[in-house]
Amino acid sequence: MTVRELNSWTEIREELHRRINDRIWQPGETIPGEADLAEEFGCARTTVSRALRALAEAGLVTRRRKAGTRVAVNPPHKATFTIPIIREEVEARGAAYSHSLLKRVEAGLPPQLHAAFPVGEGARLLFTETVYFADDRPFMFEERYTNLDAVPEFGTIAFDLITPNEWLVQNAPYTSGDLTCYAANAGERLSRFFEVAQETPLFVMERATANQKVPITHVRMSYQPGYRLRTRF
Amino acid sequence: MTVRELNSWTEIREELHRRINDRIWQPGETIPGEADLAEEFGCARTTVSRALRALAEAGLVTRRRKAGTRVAVNPPHKATFTIPIIREEVEARGAAYSHSLLKRVEAGLPPQLHAAFPVGEGARLLFTETVYFADDRPFMFEERYTNLDAVPEFGTIAFDLITPNEWLVQNAPYTSGDLTCYAANAGERLSRFFEVAQETPLFVMERATANQKVPITHVRMSYQPGYRLRTRF
DNA sequence: TAGTGGTCTAGACCACGGA
DNA sequence: CCGTGGTCTAGACCACTAC
């Protein structure tokens, strides 16, 4: 059997992927080192390294110095969601986009949010409430606390043309964050907005962002009934 | 001002990240080419390339040949969820794990799943229903259709020690998939399992996997009331 | 301590795609 | 066309860590 020379890292990645899928290398087994594979494929070690790094990022193999590269036993299911800008998401559905600022007031942080959004006691927070529409029907309901000590300019914006979210995305960079998804009943207030029963289940996302440990904003987004967050992998 | 020489790709990534955060390079602006940056930092172009690739994967910049590298205007919010093995998730909470197979029958695919799980008409499907417990309290309820034409051996397994999911993870590799999250009411059946009102909102995930376009399995996972899917970025 | 992956270099060629 | 990013090479040194 003649081994075809593979010299592109994507080809090598696919070949290694195939060997794992076909159980040529068993789960938990240590596969040959970079140098050996490079020799087999007739390419530089760097190229093999690139392919193996891609497989490691995908979770198919685990790599450790000295111990070598092993086929993952339980390849973790990883899924990357791209949280779209609401405006783009609505327009992608072919609907007309609009939004409306319902509330804008300096307020204290509800106690239950202290863990998720650790601002100090004396922090100045602006609370905003925004509804996003698709074809004049409510699409998403947003409740947001923003740290004015971190982004003072946020307090001076009229959110008629731009949304709080869009302004923050463009003007308040963040370095880390936390995202949570859960299900909740619409309840009294949201049931009126979405014109459904109070017991209607809604998909809710909460996101907190921070810049170098300085809390920027915390937002709860309640989506219209039937909303689905979807991704392929 | 003396420019400190940066010769590690992570240092360079951080420096470029800082310049973007500090608006030294405006959103939408084209930043210097790899060769220029390499000269500035006193390192090889490969190293700058590595740093820029990382920023591109994070969505902070967009890169195109000839056009160069631009600072992203609306950095997309990306979040990677790691869908854990239920056994590990339960044990990570310090609870005792167990599971129970409730049902196991060859069945046809419900019409509403045809879009998400495109098996042919004559496909042999095994339907399994499994409850996962944490400390003897129901944690997750799983309804699964598995394509026996793709993984015949699946039909011969007694799922007392291993769960359908674990068996598939270890024995049926997949190359692509689709993940959907939404909120749903418990309804009659699940309300009895979780011992809650029928109107209780539950967090639901549906996952379909395929190997080279051959559908493998479709699973709906309904989590206990109050469950939250969480990730940091 | 020795073996393995991780990284950096200097140079080269190539592929894409804007002008 | 031709500039830019994408990739490959051969070699070197380093960092981590299992043994």
Poorly predicted ranges of chain A? none
Question: Using DSSP, what is the number of strands of chain A?
Answer: 11
Largest sheet of chain A: 6 strands, antiparallel
Mean pLDDT of chain A: 93
Largest interface, C-beta closer than 8 angstroms, per-chain residues: A-B, 46 and 47 residues
CATH C-level category of the largest domain in chain A: Alpha Beta
The number of helices of chain A is: 6
Number of domains of chain A: 2
Give me the CATH architecture of the largest domain in chain A, please.
3-Layer(aba) Sandwich
State the helicity of chain A in percent bands: 10-25%
At the fourth level of CATH, the homologous superfamily of the largest domain in chain A is: Chorismate lyase-like
By oligomeric state, this entry counts as: homodimer
CATH fold field value of the largest domain in chain A = Chorismate lyase
Structural class of chain A: alpha+beta
Our estimate of the beta-strand percent of chain A is 35-45%
